[in-house]
Please model this.
Amino acid sequence: MGELQMLYEIICEKFKKKRIEFHDGLNTILGSNTGDNSIGKSSFLLIIDFVFGGSTYAHADDIIKNVGEHNICFSFKFENEFFFFSREVVNHHDIWQCNEKYEKQRSMDTEEFCNWLDKKYKIQLPYLTFRNIVSRYIRVYGKDNANEKIPLHSVSNEKMKDACSALLKLFDYYMPIHNLSQQSKKIQRRIKSLSKSTEI
Model:
């Protein structure tokens, strides 16, 4: 069995249940037994996206209006070692490394944080950032990628070729296409230069 790499917990004083712990394997978010549809499932999925470096949650006007300013603490477990962070909804561009008591130690921007996650999850694929992967495949109401008719698109108006390229990059099959694309561009530049020279 491989080494455990996972989001371990999310803590927020604004939650009805202050601490949410995740488990190895499949985790599910369920509604109530009465079938209520407005209990925060989509909001919690946006929070998960938020702790993976996303910003949609921080830009949701109804969240700020109804919940107000708040701080979300979260930890990851990599190879039996815990790493603790906190992120404010208002000042969401800064992510804080913390100690085990969630006391802030050092600030980093989202790019540095996502690069750190990319290394810890041992992804590091060429031509693909951590957020390229996570943002595209977190499908939740509130993001512009929840249309089931275009399941590969990161946003509704994305070109199909870009969506397909992203999938190939995810499985590390994009390199041959990239090489052919570069060769094609070189040939096009030569053809353009030759065309200019014949005009003289």
Notes: The mean pLDDT is 89. Strands lie at 5-11, 19-21, 71-78, 81-88, 94-98, 104-109.
